């Protein structure tokens, strides 16, 4: 057995529990586990940002200043109903997500999928944040779909995406103003449905809010998002 992320050889732990229980398909070594920072403690009620890492000036009650500004903008108020993220986007995770997304290491998604909170799926239609056809051709797969497939969660492609410059290369203001990135897929109807959007990283919140806005326009009652990293 090998660590899914760094490929270090792992020794199987032989005990009665492991003999009886089904072994996990995707395993992480202690070193990789120690470098993944799980988001715990007081955090923004909207986006999951850790308050321990935020100056008091950037908090507004139980939300961070970013989310407060989003919700103060009439164009974006109520578009996203909340976000859950599992890990802090630290240097280690930044490198591993790049390995996953840009260098085609598809199996890394299996390690992330182990942490997918299945409780978020209950009562919701799950949909991945899509890639444009051009970006999908470049990468060979959609990272959000890969996570869902490894987590064995059924999903529906409710959105399509237009091709443009990578979000990671855009300035913050450009991200916020890029309102035409998504459209509803053909014959998409979300009337009275609760939707769970899945993506890999929550940075400014622009991507999930742009997608949520389209889903709300298509009739979704609520749109919540889940990302691996925040």
UniProtKB/TrEMBL annotation:
Gene3D superfamilies with a match to the protein in the record: 3.40.50.2020
InterPro entries noted in UniProt: ComF/GntX_DNA_util-trans, PRTase-like, PRTase_dom
Domain of life of the source: Bacteria
Similarity remark: Belongs to the ComF/GntX family.
Name of the protein this chain belongs to: ComF family protein
Organism encoding this protein: Niallia taxi
